[in-house]
Amino acid sequence: MERIDIHPTHEINGRKLRCGQPFPFGAMLVPGGVNFAIYSSHASSCTLVLFNKKEPQPFAEIPFPEAFRIGNVFCMTVFDLDYENLEYGYRMDGPNNFQAGHWFDTSKILLDPYAKIVSGRDVWGVQPDWNDIYQHRGRISFDDFDWQDDRPLDIPLEDMIIYEMHARGFTKDESARIKDSHRGTFAGIRDKISYLQELGVNTIELMPIFEFDEFENSRRHPETGELLLNYWGYSTVNFFAPKAGYAATGKFGMQTDELKTLVKELHKVGIAVILDVVFNHTAEGNERGPTISFRGIDNKTYYMLTPEGYYFNFSGTGNTLNCNNPIVRGMVLDCLRYWTAEFHIDGFRFDLASILGRDPWGFPLANPPLLETLAFDPILARSKLIAEAWDAGGLYQVGSFPNYGRWAEWNGKYRDSVRKFIKGDLGLVGEMAQRIQGSPDLYQAAGRPPSTSINFITAHDGFTLADLVSYNGKHNEANGEHNNDGANDNYSWNCGIEGPTDNIYIQALRHKLMRNAMAILMVSQGVPMILMGDEFGRTQYGNNNTYCHDSPLNWLNWNLLEKEKDWFRFVQYCIAFRHAHPVFRNAEHFQNCDYLGTGYPDISWHGVQAWHADWSATSRVLAFMLCGQHAKGGKVKDNQIYVAMNMHHESLWFNLPEPPLGQAWYVFANTGAKPPEDIHWPGSEPRLDSQSGLLVGDRSLVILLAK
Amino acid sequence: MAFTIEAEVLGDLGKVTLIGELDGSTAPLFKEKIEEIAKAEIKRLVLLMAELEYMSSAGLRVLIFAKQKMGTSVNIYIVGAQEMVQDTIDQTGLHQSFYLVDAFDFTT
């Protein structure tokens, strides 16, 4: 018996139709046609607008009959469409009253918030036709990718080592030495998977890859004439569509296949994928911004508005998505479920996540429904949820982000403490003890584990690691904002000369500080995150806010890998050491006692004298020892590890605690030694000459293990 | 450019020659031929693509369809694909499901 719901019941202008399914929202292939469903609570009517691919004018406009509106959802199945070549949008009619928050305008063609492919910016950087009446066009995708047995990897958060990267910048530079057509694309990242394996990271975090417009606010630099683009992409056009311009196949509309292929190939070698998602605002900007989608569909639902009808600006970018409105909350949930189920994404990092905890008037909620919903969602149950726990409206929630036992945080306090400590600031040892332990001062009282703390010293926002030790201040003139943009609190030190220098002493000191930073990061409890290129000394020439440069300033220069091979080796070995030693990756906080009766506390504190840490305000010295038998709460056995950090400007003799009976100390790393003696491959560490103590050089760090 | 397709079954081998542009409007012809060939009990399917100028996502989807229709016991060879077609297959990850070769020896 043939189904009756695959037959049209209505005909308008020769188009065959029937009332559609109100769920799911979006455009979905159904037998014989396409089902269109879109929500608007304030629209009085809606028209479906259909284009053939890249055609300037629509070939059909079909008003939704009154009978095809169920609740506030317009739904219609249209039969006999060439869905491969179809681009679709909507016109919405309704009140146009600024103060009331309504922006309906039937002259605008609107992008479906649930479109799965968006065309219009198919190839990165190609100037669009600004006269096009419909700039960002919805298209229909197919969910028929051959995943075989792949699924998200489910790596425990505390075992992750995250590598933050820009999808284009990673391989755009010629020095990437890959096929030209792959440079700057998902296919290009795939070509570099073996490099990621060599480095040893097991997670990549992609800066925004949802469809955005690189030409948003594009402008010429007043002095240099350089075209400045929205390179970072923290401004979403559509939350369900991968950026076409990041795919070598974007010009054929096959970006979903290319991205899925990348995820599948990464998963095959044990590398997870986290997406940086930007739900705090959209590309429609403030009152003067373009009407792309949400504003024309249901402005009052999607955005936080002042009583006068203006946009609240907690994001610092013009508007604020109304995330705790139930409709918007539903969209965010649908979006994350889609990326998890359809793209096998392993987790999400939420840009300016504190906004997601504000009510429609901007007040922070004690129990934000969106954050709670995401924490308890069955499909997201194993996804990593990481908050950037602050926003541009002044809400700073590091340590207090509403978490429901699920949310981790970018730990900005870790970044600042380590930066200050390695440049020799006083009064940091107490704070450093907390940071090294996974910041229990911030998380333990609330029952949150060490892996709550995403530890990082550098990220896309701010200096690169090489610049952190080469510049005292930011140098953002290239951004064309008179050096007023970007953070001022960098806690950086140029080691004597601002910027590049031929002085070999300064170069050596800079490398030593970089080694100290990386070593501290890799021996800290929590989840380390490193920034793309830091492993071979990428510089942005002191620019700490390179959001607008599609140029070698942002593209990874792979030639540095050869030049900085000693430094790369150091990073690579540190990563391998962390993987080799579970004692750095505890799922529970230290108890600072010997709860297993091994003769050693799980963590103990030392100074130049064993068992005596100098906690005074003038101290720049701290050492600690991890008891291997307490690794992962005693569930696994590991080596005893001792780390001595001397951030003083003179060498100091450290007396060592005794290693376990019958064992001796071996040297894994000594940042004061010249390569190749600075570090040894895990398992082939040389025995320490004198077992009772050692001289730790000025501004140096030593890592020993007992065996 | 127009699209033409020829298909024949030679013993346990299916041979399909694709010429021209394979897109949304011509992909159904390709799919039809695949369905026809699938009725025969073949062990190998050979797709001759040297004269195929272009393949859209619709064409790729017929390749996926062919793979799923034929099952894992049938090896599918894509022969002589031009660079653009090969790139598309490669960038979307389909290269793993097929044997991409320059030439095919029908005597073996």
TrEMBL record, chain B:
Residues 3-108 form the STAS domain. One of its GO terms (molecular function) is anti-sigma factor antagonist activity. Pfam families: STAS. PROSITE patterns: STAS. CDD domains: STAS_anti-anti-sigma_factors (cd07043). SUPFAM superfamilies: SpoIIaa-like (SSF52091). Gene3D superfamilies: STAS domain (3.30.750.24). Belongs to the anti-sigma-factor antagonist family. PANTHER family: ANTI-SIGMA FACTOR ANTAGONIST, ANTI-SIGMA FACTOR ANTAGONIST TM_1081-RELATED-RELATED. This is Anti-sigma factor antagonist. The lineage of its organism: Bacteria, Bacillati, Cyanobacteriota, Cyanophyceae, Acaryochloridales.
